[in-house]
């Protein structure tokens, strides 16, 4: 009897185990079926979206090819045919501003980042057509060479007053000078970059000549002139284009050799002596000798003094074979304390 009961319990246990295994098998089957359905749905969804997107792209592309001249609000990711691409030159012309004569003639800022060689090359570019295709107002350019501030700047301000548009101003100062001027000054923003340094000459005349300048520059060709000089545009172009004499001065005019007193007189006397007036625009008193001329202080400045120096005393002078009464425009050197009397008398004598 006991054996029969054990067999029945064993049969029931086996039946439960089989039923549990069948339920687990069904659960796994249902799970796999659900997973396959989910994967199939996702795949089908992406496939249908891709078909719709490609269809729209093809439709937009066909529309753009049928009517390329009409603007379309549709967005196309397909590049236009090669025949519709603009040449590079035409494309650049359409995408940048055109430069007219007005922009070409606009005066650039005097500040620049060019090296000396680059600046000279740029300055040598000039038109070769003599006639101007526009109304041109001639100007006089003033270049001031100075170590620091201009001691007679207020007098020059008075001189330039009322003549705007008839002059250009450039200030070439020592590289170490870093002061500014008021924004209402004619010298404001007119300082040009410089690597040049200034030294006081100790020797005189031909004593500054360097024999190593031979054979390009001989001793009898060596000249000394005033630090005030005047030249026309044609001669100025020759100066900035010089590649024969200027390199010699750059190499051998050192120390006591003062380039702005010797280079221009020497260069002009060698190459353009027929155009050299052999005179200066400023009266200088060398009667005391030495490397520097006589200086004039405050009490020496009178109206009669200024008139006398402009007329070269009572001697007068000749220019281009004609007798003239104005021999000098100004004089040097004036002390800073002479400024107030210069501003009082100079406008009457010089008529400005």
TrEMBL record:
<keyword id="KW-0328">Glycosyltransferase</keyword>
<keyword id="KW-0472">Membrane</keyword>
<keyword id="KW-0808">Transferase</keyword>
<protein>
    <submittedName>
        <fullName>Uncharacterized protein</fullName>
    </submittedName>
</protein>
<dbReference type="Pfam" id="PF02485">
    <property type="entry name" value="Branch"/>
</dbReference>
<dbReference type="GO" id="GO:0016020">
    <property type="term" value="C:membrane"/>
</dbReference>
<dbReference type="GO" id="GO:0016757">
    <property type="term" value="F:glycosyltransferase activity"/>
</dbReference>
<keyword id="KW-0325">Glycoprotein</keyword>
<keyword id="KW-1133">Transmembrane helix</keyword>
<feature type="transmembrane region" description="Helical">
    <location>
        <begin position="27"/>
        <end position="48"/>
    </location>
</feature>
<dbReference type="InterPro" id="IPR044174">
    <property type="entry name" value="BC10-like"/>
</dbReference>
<keyword id="KW-0812">Transmembrane</keyword>
<dbReference type="InterPro" id="IPR003406">
    <property type="entry name" value="Glyco_trans_14"/>
</dbReference>
């Amino acid at each position: 009897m006991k054996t029969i009961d054990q067999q029945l319990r064993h049969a029931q246990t086996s039946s439960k185990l089989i039923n549990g295994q069948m339920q687990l098998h069904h659960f796994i089957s249902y799970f796999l079926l659900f997973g396959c359905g989910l994967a199939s749905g996702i795949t089908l969804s992406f496939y249908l979206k891709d078909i719709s997107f490609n269809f729209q792209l093809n439709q937009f592309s066909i529309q753009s090819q049928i009517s390329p001249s009409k603007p379309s609000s549709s967005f196309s990711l397909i590049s236009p045919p090669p025949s519709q691409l603009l040449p590079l030159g035409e494309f650049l012309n359409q995408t940048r501003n055109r430069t007219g004569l007005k922009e070409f003639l606009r005066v650039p800022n005097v500040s620049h980042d060019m090296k000396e060689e680059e600046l000279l090359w740029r300055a040598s570019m000039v038109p070769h057509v003599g006639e101007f295709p526009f109304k041109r107002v001639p100007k006089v350019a003033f270049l001031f060479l100075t170590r620091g501030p201009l001691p007679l700047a207020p007098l020059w301000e008075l001189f330039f007053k009322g003549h705007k548009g008839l002059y250009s101003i450039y200030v070439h100062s020592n590289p170490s000078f870093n002061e500014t001027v008021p924004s209402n000054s004619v010298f404001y923003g007119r300082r040009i970059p410089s690597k040049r340094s200034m030294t006081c000459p100790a020797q005189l005349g031909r004593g500054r000549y360097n024999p190593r300048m031979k054979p390009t520059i001989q001793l009898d060709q060596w000249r000394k002139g005033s630090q005030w000089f005047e030249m026309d545009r044609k001669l100025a172009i020759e100066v900035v284009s010089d590649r024969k004499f200027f390199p010699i001065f750059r190499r051998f005019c050192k120390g006591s050799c003062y380039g702005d007193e010797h280079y221009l007189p020497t260069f002009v006397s060698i190459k353009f002596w027929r155009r050299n007036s052999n005179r200066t625009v400023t009266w200088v008193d060398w009667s005391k000798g030495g490397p520097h001329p006589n200086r004039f202080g405050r009490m020496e400045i009178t109206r009669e003094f200024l008139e006398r120096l402009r007329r070269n005393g009572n001697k007068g002078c000749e220019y281009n074979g004609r007798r003239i009464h104005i021999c000098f425009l100004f004089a040097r050197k004036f002390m800073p304390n002479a400024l107030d009397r210069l501003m009082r008398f100079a406008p009457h004598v010089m008529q400005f």
